Amino acid sequence: MTPDSSPSSVDDPLFESGHRIFANKDLLKIGHVPEADRIVGRDEEISKLAKRLNGAVHGYSPENVMIYGKTGTGKSLVSKHVCQRAQNAAQDGVEIGTAYIDCAEDNTETQAISSLAAKLNDESSTGISVPHTGLSTSKYYKLLWKTLDAQFDSVIIILDEIDLMNDDSVLMKLSRAEEAGKIDCSVGVIAISNKIQYVDNVNERVKSSFQHKELFFKPYDANQLREIMFNREDAFQDGVLSEDVIPLSAAFAAQEHGDARKAIDILRHAGEVAYEAGAEQVTEEHVRQAQQHAEKDRFRELVNGAPTQAKAALLALTELSVNSNDDAFLTSRVYDQYERICNHLDMDILSVRRFRDILKEQAFLGVVEIEKINKGSAGGIHLQNRLIEDPQVVRETILEDSRMQDWTRE
Ligand SMILES: Nc1ncnc2c1ncn2[C@@H]1O[C@H](COP(=O)(O)OP(=O)(O)OP(=O)(O)O)[C@@H](O)[C@H]1O
Known about the structure:
alpha/beta; single chain; Rossmann fold; Helicase, Ruva Protein, domain 3; Arc Repressor Mutant, subunit A; 3-stranded antiparallel beta sheet
């Protein structure tokens, strides 16, 4: 039983009997693969991918597939789902192995191959032991080939976030192994990336051996996001979710692009906020707080990593936004405020040109929106700057930097 599922009773009154809010929080875990009837709007992608992998079910070679799509569009989920179904559907006597590698974690060739060998090896049946570390890349490849031949007719390997792998020859070696006579087992690779141009940048030799078909996943619309969440309503105790919670979480997640990961994160987080607050129900207000947290997290990452001068520039725009009814300000006005901040913090003051570049960089990162305004023939073109996110959230985040905190002290 998992910590958040509801146990029937607990003897010690120090601990609660069951969870007030969650009935099965595992359903809201990001890596969770829901049953087929909980997967929304991906029938076509599922069937296309199944066609590519069909060979494996009969013991022949599955095709290699490259899947593209923005974050949270179900690429990993659909890949894992189709792999599971291929394993279940395998013809009598055909053994299919499947493995999932997150290239953000295993980002070198050696790590990826040692992880693959370890995941695919069942030591009790092969008698092969795969040490976690300590072997050369070529030894890990040899171990991998041995384990595959000892157990499987076909193997499907998912390489998620392949663009983060620092050596693309993994693709070549995996797809050539059978042809090169290194193994009898056939191997298919599903490579997943958010970057549409990934294959263009891959080495030509790799490209020519990794003959692949491509699949594109579109973002979800708000209705699909809603359905995805309604299908996991039983993660919560009966009657705990108030009516607006799922539609509002879907609306927030649909704002940037239709990201199911974001939708589920907000929903789970709203439940946690409600629990922490001692509430009996998850309400719209908890969703808003969860969304603010998510925004803050994203911002914290962007702003924490920004140079001090960029923080001062953002603080200038933030101060104007917080203390005025307007939300967009001419660069000259932001610069004046920036000068005041730099003087107060005893920082160097950059030229207007450098300052403009900093704001442009922040616009590129999605923190600031810059708009050109035309003030007629005499006035010329001016730039207006607007914070994209809630100025209070930005302000709090910037003031987490101890150097910036001096701004609030007289
Ligand atoms: N069609 C769907 N039906 C139900 N749940 C979904 C669907 N698509 C995505 N999800 C859920 O949304 C979350 C994110 O999905 P997934 O990890 O598959 O996205 P992804 O496209 O691989 O994202 P990333 O590129 O960030 O890895 C998971 O919890 C997944 O279960």
